[in-house]
Amino acid sequence: MVESAVAASNEQLNRVYASSLWAHTRLVLQSIVPDPNNYTHLALVGIALFFIIRIAVSVARGPGADYFIMDKVRRQAVATKRTFTPRELSEFNGKDESTPVYLAIRGIVYDVSKSRHMYGPQGPYCNFAGRDASRGLALSAFDESVLTDLDAPIDPLEGLEKSEQASLDEWIEFFSGKYTPIGTLVEPPVESKKDQ
User: For the chain, which terminal residue's Cβ has fewer other Cβ atoms within 10 angstroms, N or C?
Assistant: First the structure.
């Protein structure tokens, strides 16, 4: 009997505590928003403030904000430490269905195999498969004349105009968001140049 009285007493205390907690919460909310019907208005004001702050921040960053994005892309971590010479990279041109399709942009090699229909032998960008596509993408030229010879030094991309550099930056941002970087493009060792 004593146990049931204690249990009933505890239950009653819990109800009082819960109701007082709710009452306290209501008082706090009413001090913020006097009318409970204004909660919807409060939510709408909060959403509007979020977008106003977001727009203000983007305006404050100005037109140079894109350069911060490109700095992150240039420092992008490459998943593996594999290096490719231009000749080694050319083996991944998509002509063999059992090998992946790679291409390089500004020294970063990307696996574009998931878009084989674009970079494979019948695709519109097939000339870039297994090659350094930097100059071609910068110039928006997709023919073989923009590709450097496999035994020539890697294209330093000199002579590009600002608009062409900006175009290349946009392509790099696109590739880094869609494809996995799997290595870097490097000059062949001096000994192998002599051997060929």
Answer: N
Residue 122 pLDDT grade (very low, low, confident, very high; cuts 50, 70, 90): confident
More confident residue, 25 or 53: 53
Residue partners of 104: CB distance under 8 A and separation at least 6: 84, 89, 110, 131, 132, 133, 134, 185
Q: What is the pLDDT of residues 123-150, one digit of tens each?
A: 898 999 999 999 999 998 888 888 888 8
Instruction: Name the phi and psi angles at 97, rounded to 5.
Output: -60, -20
Asked if 168 and 139 count as a contact pair (C-beta separation under 8 A), the reply is no
Residues in the chain: 196
The CA distance from 181 to 162, in Å, is 25
Cα Rg of the chain (Å, integer): 31
Helix (H, G, I), strand (E, B) or coil at 66: helix
Question: What phi-psi label fits residue 111: left (phi over 0), alpha (psi between -120 and 50 degrees) or beta?
Answer: beta
| Contact by Cβ (8 Å): 103, 133 | yes
151: Cα within 13 Å, side-chain hemisphere: 6
Identify the bridge partners of residue 108 per DSSP, sorted by sequence position.
Answer: 105, 184
